[in-house]
């Protein structure tokens, strides 16, 4: 064994003691989708736990909360849907058609980017994708404007999909609806449906009006999520009594760009590892989850040591992508699920354990059940073998059009 690996063993052993005290653990070879969410249990799935600088093992921020209603049915709620997180949502094998409720903590790209595929590709929903999010300093900087811009951005995408999808009359599952709330109101009730209650509370991030923290309450369980913020007394007040607190922390500095710039960025816009420990110590949740960290082999021990310097005891987890916590009134179980290679997920979940849905076959033009003309409405002809072929002549008008389309 390499000397470096030997040197790491005591540190990793210490890490396991510091990090996981107070949490129960199940089979590490856990494949999500093979079990149901128990009744009266909130399952928290980390779809993305990282920073804007995403990489394969740590995507941008998103948490799927599954509320186990009766041991069979669940309510799915997303807190943020950052860059790349849709990949891990697919990996859960949860059909996108069953994910229709999203809450946004703020409108940075690393928290909202994957709204695009969630909206565009989940046409199996029974109703619109519903998005709750904060206002901004002006109407053009709030959630309503963001969702309107997303719809415009995907205008051609949706027009083309709707053209061939043969949706029934009155179908709304291909739509998206924004619910903007005032970011500045403390402990504000923003959602109350089917026993699920969500509150918002102002956060501070990039000194720009808009960011909020979120708190979900359901069946005597409370999960509070900071979003991106500096450490705030008002957040502690907001989160007191929570079963689970998910709070951002950024670092270590040497794992970010230039150290001086990164230090200033953390101080002005984020929470350090020591500070997040102070937040956890003040709240004393049943489970403290530090998120938004840059996790590498060489950062785990210093991060945990920093947090434990101000939060010396109590269940603590550093959020990793694909981590799963089952939270009930009496227990918290932590796992991390395995992704099945080439697993089927998202909208295209197979109806059985078979690799492909029953009756699957490759599509040919003759399988389409909408009118497919030999000549399209733009005059383009479908290719058939044996046609006479000739090079297309250049069109000077197209050169002029393309030369102006990209001007700023």
TrEMBL record:
InterPro entries linked: Metallo-B-lactamas, RibonucZ/Hydroxyglut_hydro
Domain Metallo-beta-lactamase residues, every copy: 75-292
Signal peptide: 1-26
Listed GO MF terms: 3'-tRNA processing endoribonuclease activity
Pfam families cross-referenced by the UniProt entry: Lactamase_B_2
Recorded superkingdom: Eukaryota
Keywords in alphabetical order: Signal
Ranges that cross the membrane: none
Protein name as catalogued: Metallo-beta-lactamase domain-containing protein
Organism: [Myrmecia] bisecta
């Amino acid at each position: 064994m390499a000397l470096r690996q030997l040197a790491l063993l005591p540190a990793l052993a210490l890490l396991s003691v510091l990090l996981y005290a107070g949490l129960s653990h199940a089979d590490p070879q856990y494949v999500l989708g093979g079990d149901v969410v128990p009744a009266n249990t909130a399952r928290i799935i980390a779809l993305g736990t990282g920073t804007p600088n995403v990489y394969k093992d740590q995507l941008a921020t998103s948490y799927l909360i599954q509320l186990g209603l009766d041991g069979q049915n669940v309510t799915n709620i997303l807190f943020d849907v950052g860059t790349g997180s849709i990949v891990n949502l697919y990996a859960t094998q949860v059909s996108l058609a069953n994910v229709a409720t999203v809450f946004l903590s703020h409108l940075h790209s690393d928290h909202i980017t994957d709204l695009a595929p969630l909206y565009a590709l989940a046409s199996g929903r029974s109703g619109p994708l519903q998005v709750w999010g904060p206002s901004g300093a002006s109407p053009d900087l709030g959630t309503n404007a963001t969702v309107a811009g997303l719809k415009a951005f995907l205008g051609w995408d949706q027009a083309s999909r709707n053209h061939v999808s043969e949706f029934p009359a009155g179908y709304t599952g291909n739509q998206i609806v924004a619910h903007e709330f005032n970011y500045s109101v403390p402990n504000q009730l923003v959602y109350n449906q089917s026993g699920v209650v969500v509150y918002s509370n102002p956060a501070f991030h990039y000194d720009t009006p808009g960011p909020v923290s979120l708190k979900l309450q359901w069946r005597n369980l409370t999960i509070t999520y900071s979003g991106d913020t500096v450490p705030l007394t008002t957040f502690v007040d907001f989160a007191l009594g929570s079963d689970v607190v998910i709070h951002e922390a950024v670092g270590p500095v040497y794992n970010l760009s230039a150290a001086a710039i990164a230090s200033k960025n953390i101080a002005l816009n984020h929470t350090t590892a020591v500070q997040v420990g102070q937040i956890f110590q003040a709240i004393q949740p049943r489970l403290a989850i530090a998120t938004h960290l840059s996790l590498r082999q060489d950062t785990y021990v210093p991060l945990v040591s920093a947090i434990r310097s101000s939060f010396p005891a109590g269940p603590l987890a550093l959020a990793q992508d694909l981590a799963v916590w089952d939270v009930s009134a009496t227990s918290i179980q932590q796992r991390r699920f395995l992704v099945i290679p080439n697993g089927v997920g998202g909208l295209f979940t197979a109806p059985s354990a078979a690799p492909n849905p029953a009756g699957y076959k490759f599509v040919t033009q003759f399988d389409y059940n909408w009118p497919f003309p030999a000549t399209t409405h733009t005059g383009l002809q479908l290719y058939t073998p044996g046609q006479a072929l000739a090079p297309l002549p250049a069109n000077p008008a197209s050169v002029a059009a393309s030369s102006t389309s990209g001007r700023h």
